[in-house]
C-alpha cells in the first residue's frame, strides 16, 4: 500500500556518555523521533509530547506501514494540538523498543544486543535525554510539554528539573508517584514475563525466541487496569461466546476472549520487547520526585515556574482524580497558575486517548492559551 506523505522517523545521536540516576551510564545513545508542523522563525512554537508505557514516537499521522499514530485524534491540522500552529515533537524513550537505544539495540562496547545488560532507566533519565534533543533542535524553550499517564510524569519531572525550559505543562491522567497497589500490579506483570521459560534471564534474543506467553499475560493484566468496571460491564457483561456453558477451562466469556486477544496482539503483532516492558514498569515504580525534597510535594513543585493544566477522569481508578488533586494542591500551595478539569468518562484510564467532547473542549481551549502565550508578533495578531 502506498501512503501519501507518510510520517518520517528521524534520529538524534548523542555521542557523549549519559550518566544515569542508577549510577550506571550509557556510553552513547540515539533517540528516534517524529515531528509534525513547522518550527517558526524564533523556534518558540515547539510542543514536546511524552508517551506512556507502551507508546512510542509515532504519535500522529500515518507512517510508511500505514499505521496511525497513537494520539492521531488529538494531533494534526485543526485538531486539539494544531499542527498549523505548533511544531510537535515526540521521541521514543530511552530503553524503548521502537528505535531509540534500548535492550534491542547494539551495545557499542560489546558489539552485541544489549538485552538484559541494558541499565535501569528512570523518568529523570528520560528528561535528561529529551533535554539533549531539545538542544540539538535549537529550541530554547518549549511552548508546552504534554503527556498522559507515564507521559504526564515526565512532564512533571521536566517542570521540576528544567523549569525555565517550558512555559506550559499539561499533565493528563497521572500521579505524583505510584500507589502500593500500582507497584503490585507492575510486579505481577514482571513476574509473568520473567517466569516464562522463553525469557532466559532476559537473554531471549540470543536464544532466538520471545517470551510471548509472559508478555501476553502482562498485557492482559495491564489492560484490566486501563478499563473501568462499568466500561467492561457495558461492553461485555457476562456474555458468552457460545449460547451455553462448557464446564471447562477454555475461553467461554466474551471478556476472556477480548483479554486473550489483546495479550496475543501485544506479544506478537506489536512485537513489544519484554525487557523494555520490565524497564518501563520499573521506571514507573521509581518515579517519586518528592523523595528529593523531604517527601514534600509542595516543596518539590515549588521548583516549577510553568503554567499547568491538570486533567483527570472520573472512572480512572489506576490514576484516580484524587491523585491529580494532590498535584493541584501542591501547585496551589506555591500560588502557581494551574487549571484543573475532572472529565466524566466511563472509559477508565484509557480515557485520555479516546474521543470525549468535554475533554477535547478543555484541552483545545488550553492549547489556544498556549498559542496566545507564544512570544512572537504573529501570536498577538
From TrEMBL:
Residues 45-353 form the AB hydrolase-1 domain. The keyword Isomerase does not apply. It catalyses: L-homoserine + succinyl-CoA = O-succinyl-L-homoserine + CoA. Pathway: Amino-acid biosynthesis; L-methionine biosynthesis via de novo pathway; O-succinyl-L-homoserine from L-homoserine: step 1/1. GO terms for molecular function: homoserine O-acetyltransferase activity. The active site is at 149 (nucleophile), 316, 349. Its EC number is 2.3.1.46. Keywords: Acyltransferase, Amino-acid biosynthesis, Cytoplasm, Methionine biosynthesis, Transferase. It is found in: Cytoplasm. The record marks 318 as: Important for acyl-CoA specificity. Pfam families: Abhydrolase_1 (PF00561). InterPro entries: AB_hydrolase_1, AB_hydrolase_fold, HAT_MetX-like. Its main location: cytoplasm. Substrate binds at residues 219, 350. Belongs to the AB hydrolase superfamily. MetX family. Homodimer. NCBIfam families: homoserO_Ac_trn, PRK00175.1. Transfers a succinyl group from succinyl-CoA to L-homoserine, forming succinyl-L-homoserine. This is Homoserine O-succinyltransferase.
